[in-house]
Amino acid sequence: MSEAVIQVAQLKLGYGDRCVLKEASFSIGKGEIVGIIGCNGAGKSTLLKTIRGLLPKQGGSVSYFGKPLEEYQDKELATKIAYLQQHVELGFGYTGKDIVMAGRYPYMKWWERESDADERLALACMKYTGTADLADRPVNEVSGGQKQRILIAKVLAQQTPIIFLDEPTTGLDMVYQEEIFRFAKALAAQGKTVLMVVHELNLASKYCSRILLLGEGTLLADGTPQEVFTEKLLSRAYKADIKVEHDLVNGNLHISTRVSEAAKLRGAELLRQICGN
Amino acid sequence: MLKKCYGKAALIVLACLLLLVGCVSLTIGQIDVPFKSAAAVLMQQLGLPFLQDVSLSKEQLAVIWYIRLPRMLVGMLVGGALGISGAVMQGIFSNPLADPGLIGISAGAATGAVVAIAIGGTAGSMLAMPVFALCGSILAVCLTVFLAMRNGKIPVMTLLLAGVAVGMLLGAITSGILTFMNEQKLQQYLFWMVGGLDYRRWEHVYLAVGPVLVGIFIMLLLARHLNILVLGETEAKAVGMPVMQFRMGLLFVAAITTATSVCVSGNIGFVGLVIPHMMRMLLGPDHRILLPASALGGALFLVFCDCLGRVVVAPAEVRVGIMTAILGSPYFLYLLRKMQKSVF
To answer: Are strands A33-37 and A210-215 parallel, antiparallel or unpaired?
Structure first.
């Protein structure tokens, strides 16, 4: 692996006294695109928020470029990591450009205003994500996919070597979902380290260079998609019967769930009762 | 670029309108003073080398210099303070219905004022009531913040609820004290409660000018940061903003500025709520334009309402607090209906 950009050791995290994840240790290098997967409540978003410093950790250590997280100033950390959160409520009619310009905040002294160069960069980011025509439109009037691409433009405008994406494809149609993964891959190809929480395992297997599988309150597996996406590991993490098929033509994995015959019969009986047949 | 130019042009227009309404407010009232005479009073009193040859009666001098000018200046300071503080509060709470009164400022001022009247402080000095009201507001804000604080953090929702609770508690204390007051003192309180600019003197200008101008200056300086704060706590932290420091700093400055204005004019409603809305609809949500526009718009609205109050049932006067409510309520209701489909 190339030079370690993110190092996490014996991390323990949760909310208050409740521990969500313990003994998580991993190291991520430059240019990697890492998917964090696991069932609902496994602690994927909590892990991302904690290592970003948005939530307090319960134990362990996190460092970026060899420097512990605690030693970073707020703005300095924001020049290292850009973070796209799961749900963003944008009120007050801010335009697309206003949102993207927020990505330049960490580079300005508190009394400074955005320069023309900042504005040019913001517009370039919007062009790259195909949102330049939304620059002057209020964000609360655009579609979910457009809003997400504006937020990705903001993340790009932050010009950081590390990018965290927390469920960036939630609520998007399949075209936008794959587009987000393509953005992530293109960024990783530029030497940026991308860490993303994902639910789309088929896309993750296609685009991620590495997978962190969370389950049973710990980091269950850490490896390439081929190593992690096994029926045994996924079934254990998701507490379901999971089927993994290999596409022999393009080498992609196809992951789906299986329902047992007993469960099917139970479901059919219940449905008959509900429908009154 | 077009947006920037439009914003700056709008600020210039607002400033010109404020100047115009200010001039009108010096000339209208029970005693008619021509504009030239009013301008001559200002020039002569300020020692400026213009209009020195205009002869003025003692009455004109007294009306302009000792009554109308301080009244207009207090109106501008109070309106500006309420307008900009309202815009800042709406930004801090990311809520278009937030208002400086939400965190107990008005209730604290009312309790302070009623205590000043009850202990007879108002008989000793005309500044007793403003000073007590200011102390009451500051104590109320401190109490609200103290009650809302959890592990060094202040969740917005907890702060709003604590503000409501403190407001109710102080309201009960105020009502309790009022029940033991005689009629004359009750009238004094009522007079303060229905905010007004009448009987405002230079002392009131001196009391308000420092805190209000410094407060407005600091809020304008931090306008760009408010644009980030409005995006939400996580988003602001993600771009490197120390959210707690900025939120508390802005809240404190807005609270002091509002408290100072409430203490010299009494409770004046709707300026802090309606003016920022109106400016946001006209000029957009960028706080670098919105804050100065709200300050100018608030000052303009209050002085205009004061002028209107002086002429609408002349020779009697409708107090400015009533005028702002009469003009503000219908507009607010219109906004509420429009909100469903608009930018909020």
So the answer is: parallel
Residue B242 placed within a domain: yes
Residue A193 amino acid letter: T
pLDDT score at B343: 47
The pLDDT value recorded for residue A232 is 92
- Is the sign of the CA dihedral B207, B208, B213, B214 positive or negative? positive
Distance separating alpha carbons of residues B115 and B134, to the nearest angstrom: 12
Positions in chain A whose pLDDT score sits under 70: 1-2
Number of independent structural domains in chain B: 1
Asked whether B102 and B273 are in contact (CB, 8 A), the reply is no
| φ/ψ (deg, to 5) at B200 | -85, 135
pTM: 0.86
| A85: nearest Cα among A175, A155, A4 | A155
Average pLDDT over residues B173-185: 91
Q: Is A243 helix (H, G, I), strand (E, B) or coil?
A: strand
User: Which amino acid, one-letter code, is at A203?
Assistant: L
How far B295 CA lies from chain A's nearest CA (Å)? 19
Domain span holding position B64: 9-339
Is some CB atom of chain A closer than 8 A to the CB atom of B224?
A: yes
CA distances from A250 to A181, A206, B279 (A): 18, 10, 58
How far from B272 is each of A98, B88, B309, B344, CA to CA, in Å? Answer: 25, 10, 19, 17
**A138 at B interface, C-beta within 8 A:** yes
Residue B258: which CATH number? 1.10.3470.10
Continuous segment of H or E residues that includes residue B9 = helix B2-27
| A158 to B288: CB separation less than 8 angstroms, yes or no | no
Distance, in Å, from the CA atom of B330 to the CA atom of B307, rounded to the nearest integer, reads 19
Closest CA to A219 of A55, A13, A59, A16: A13
The per-residue pLDDT for B145 is 87
Average pLDDT value for residue range B166-188: 91
Total beta-carbon pairs less than 8 A apart between chain A and chain B:
74
Question: What 8-state DSSP symbol labels residue B104?
Answer: T
- At residue B339, the pLDDT reads 62
B280 touches chain A (CB under 8 A): yes
